Amino acid sequence: MNTLDPGLLQSLVWMDYRLAVLFTVVMPLILLIWAFVRQANAIQLLLTIYWKVASLLMITVYLMIGGFSFAFITGLMARILIPIGLWFWDDLNEEIREQPNSLLRFLLVSWRWAVSLYSVIGAVAVALFLPCAFSTTQFASSACQTWLEPPLLYKYYLHFSYKPGFLGFFGLVGLVVYLLVLGYFVFVKLGRQGRSAIN
Asked: Where are the domains of the chain?
């Protein structure tokens, strides 16, 4: 981690955030609107599930703004959970597979593979920086602080008048809610519905 050239690391981190905006925000938003217009129910449901799971990425951004080192853990969790959330559902996979060929279906399948690959590569990258989450000294290093630069720029443009601690608090609240919902799904709903997204 510390052997990587600082300039190269900064370029890679910024590239990662740009790809995140493209693959995890812009494209799924376009696909969701398109699916809603076309009344493609299976695609709508899959993308709705995706947005629920992927909200952990935004929570991570606010935790990083607040200077919480464990944001590296939530960032890793998000990159692991996104592919799981996209491919877990047997009924949705079957419905999407059986739909007639269309541009919407083609783009959805292409995006689903692309965002899954992006998430796996991103998970490996973030895993290399997990020491940032467990050591105050490590977290203060330039390598770990480089990951905070894009969230702080986001804060500067969208939340200029708010203090980082205030925004970090909202990240904490979001994380608590997210973990409660995830826990309810894993320990209650999963046993009832299995890998079926349609109740």
From this structure: 6-193
The token duo for 136 is: 């105050």
**Residues belonging to the chain:** 199
85 Cβ neighbours under 8 A, 6+ residues apart: 49, 50, 52, 53, 54
Q: How far apart are CA 134 and CA 60, in angstroms?
A: 16
Cα end-to-end distance, the chain, whole Å: 45
Task: State pLDDT tens for residues 96-128.
Answer: 999 889 999 999 999 999 999 999 999 999 999
Compute CA 75 distance to the chain's CA centroid, rounded to the nearest angstrom. Answer: 7
CA distances from 79 to 9, 135, 144, 155 (A): 19, 22, 18, 22
Model-level pTM? 0.93
